[in-house]
């Protein structure tokens, strides 16, 4: 059996796989190679490099392991037509993403950008800026799954009241209360921090509209760490220009990389993060912690593997 990685990885991680599975032929590449496509039974990808034409060439393909949470750039219909098994690494992002989100919140609350700027300019100004405190705040977490739950856990350690927003309204871990997505407007006016970690689906596209920003506090922080199409870019720019909220922290965008001509670059009340909040030196290690047990199951003929996905639904 041939397992084809469409990206290179650390030599020690490659050796770990080769030593643990001597019966498997592994191919570690930097990109798409036709010969590997045609012979691979399993493909490991970040989910952004496969096309419908690639799937057509991969006649032996039975399973795609996506070393990412999102699959919106994958040729879903072509994969579904072949009934190819798809799984991902949902859950491994929660530690680095939560640390990124918490870092941004504390940076804004404790005016770190002002402090850093004053240092560069050799300015000693004890009264510059208006630092605020995180404790006692209310955070609304849109999508309180594995990542949202970890965000809630750490925010609660700062005495933040956490409200979860999901499809069902069923209680979610580390949420003081949880409500349905269609009830979001009722809770935005009492929220200090709005954090979205939603995946990209038909239901979530442009879910947040201009009216939602109007309902937020004028000192609220809006954070999008899920997918960029949650909010139409023009709507987000309008809300920021009109200062409907205090600040937005964006790790994802409708168009990536963010175009140089985008007005978002020019606004003072936005922080632009280049879709890197989940990056970590331990990313691939955590991915293999899911892949290896799944591969063992697959070899034993068990396709009930961790994070098995419905590719057409996107999760």
UniProtKB/TrEMBL annotation:
Domain of life per record: Bacteria
Keyword annotations from UniProtKB, A to Z: NAD, Oxidoreductase
Gene3D superfamilies: NAD(P)-binding Rossmann-like Domain
The D-isomer specific 2-hydroxyacid dehydrogenase NAD-binding domain, residue ranges: 102-277
Gene Ontology molecular function terms on file: NAD binding; oxidoreductase activity, acting on the CH-OH group of donors, NAD or NADP as acceptor
One Pfam family named in its UniProt record: 2-Hacid_dh_C
Domain D-isomer specific 2-hydroxyacid dehydrogenase catalytic: residue ranges: 35-303
Entry keyword annotation includes Phosphoprotein: no
PROSITE patterns: D_2_HYDROXYACID_DH_3
Family: Belongs to the D-isomer specific 2-hydroxyacid dehydrogenase family.
Name of the molecule in the record: Phosphoglycerate dehydrogenase-like enzyme
Organism name: Ureibacillus chungkukjangi
């Amino acid at each position: 059996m041939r397992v084809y990685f469409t990206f290179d990885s650390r030599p020690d991680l490659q050796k770990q796989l080769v030593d643990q599975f001597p019966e498997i032929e592994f191919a570690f590449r930097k990109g798409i190679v036709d010969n590997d496509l045609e012979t691979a039974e399993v493909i490991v990808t970040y989910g952004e490099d496969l096309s419908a034409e690639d799937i057509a060439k991969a006649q032996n393909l039975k399973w795609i392991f996506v070393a990412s949470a999102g699959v919106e750039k994958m040729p879903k219909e072509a994969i579904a037509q072949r009934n190819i098994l798809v799984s991902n690494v949902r859950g491994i992002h929660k530690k680095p993403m939560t640390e990124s989100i918490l870092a941004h919140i504390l940076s804004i609350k404790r005016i770190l950008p002002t402090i850093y700027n004053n240092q560069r300019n050799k300015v000693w100004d004890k009264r510059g800026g208006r630092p605020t405190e995180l404790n006692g705040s209310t955070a609304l977490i849109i999508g309180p799954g594995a990542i949202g739950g970890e965000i809630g856990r750490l925010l609660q350690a700062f005495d933040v009241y956490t409200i979860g927003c999901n499809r069902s309204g069923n209680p979610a871990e580390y949420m003081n209360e949880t409500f349905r997505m269609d009830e979001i407007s009722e809770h935005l006016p009492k929220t200090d921090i709005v954090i979205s970690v939603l995946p990209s689906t038909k239901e979530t596209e442009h879910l947040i509209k201009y009216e939602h920003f109007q309902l937020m506090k004028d000192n609220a922080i809006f954070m999008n760490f899920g997918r960029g199409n949650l909010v139409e870019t023009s709507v987000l720019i309008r809300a920021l220009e009109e200062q409907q909220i205090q600040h937005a922290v964006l790790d994802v965008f409708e168009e990536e990389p963010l175009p140089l001509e985008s007005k978002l670059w020019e606004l003072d009340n936005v922080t632009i993060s280049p879709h890197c909040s989940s990056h970590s030196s331990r990313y691939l290690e955590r991915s293999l912690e899911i892949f290896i047990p799944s591969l063992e199951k697959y070899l034993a003929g068990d396709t009930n593997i961790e994070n098995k996905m419905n590719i057409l639904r996107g999760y």
